[in-house]
Amino acid sequence: MKLNVYATPDSVQDKDLKDRNVVVIDVLRATSTILAALINGCKEVIPAIEIEEVINMSKNYEKDSYLLCGERNIDAIDGFHLSNSPLEYTADRVSDKTLLFTTTNGTRAIRKVVDAREVIMCSLTNVDVVAEHLAREKNDTAFVCAGTDGQFSMDDVVTAGAVISRLRDLADNLELGDLAVVAEVMYKNNNGNLHSLLANSTHYKRLMDKGLKDDIDYCLTLNAAPVVGIFKDGIIRTLDKVQE
Ligand code: MLT
Predict the structure, then answer these.
(1) 240 domain residue, yes or no
(2) How far, in Å, is the centroid of ligand 1 from the Cα of 145?
(3) pLDDT tens digits, 152-191
(4) Atom 8 in ligand 1: residue holding the nearest Cα
(5) Disulfide-capable partner of 146 in 93, 109, 124, 235 (CB 3.0 to 4.6 Å)?
């Protein structure tokens, strides 16, 4: 099983995705938020690139069946129901709703990898179930990190490392590309101390400056949202629903 890690969506080419499983990671905060919504019972999440796209899509839904969700440059979007804070995605707000969701980097990364064999949402909050799913699938896998504004983001790469480290116990014959090796070493050397590792990273500092420490604490909690989210036909749903 070949495992490759790509530091940003722009560093992946279509040929790197063909016939592979793709794990998309935006720990701070888009994939953490999507997984919080899925575990709290939302019907589905539809990732969009532009704010206008979300507004246009909403015209196809019954009032009260959907929520407008997301952020621009970390801040809530005027007129939207929810921001990109995973803590807002409680069961009482999201249960059975369609979430029309746009973020600055995360939803772009998800939409970029549509041609993969299967696209899996990943964050520190679901590393174990992602590793178990990949071990069952036994396919070559590309980890695509959302990064921040086109730049490498340490939090995403260390999360790929967490999944790879768990896969060691679950699958044989892992073949790691160079960045996958770095990711695994980074995770193993900092397991249990992720806050210290990430405290100097750009996006962590930006979120702290905005007073979002509780979001960071949640996003760095291993397995807080143990659910597999699959992006298929433009929609993110739980694996159980996709297989129904
Ligand atoms: C993004 O997609 O750019 C991020 O999730 C930004 C954020 O922390 O809201």
Answers:
(1) no
(2) 12
(3) 999 999 999 999 999 999 999 999 999 999 999 999 999 8
(4) 29
(5) 109
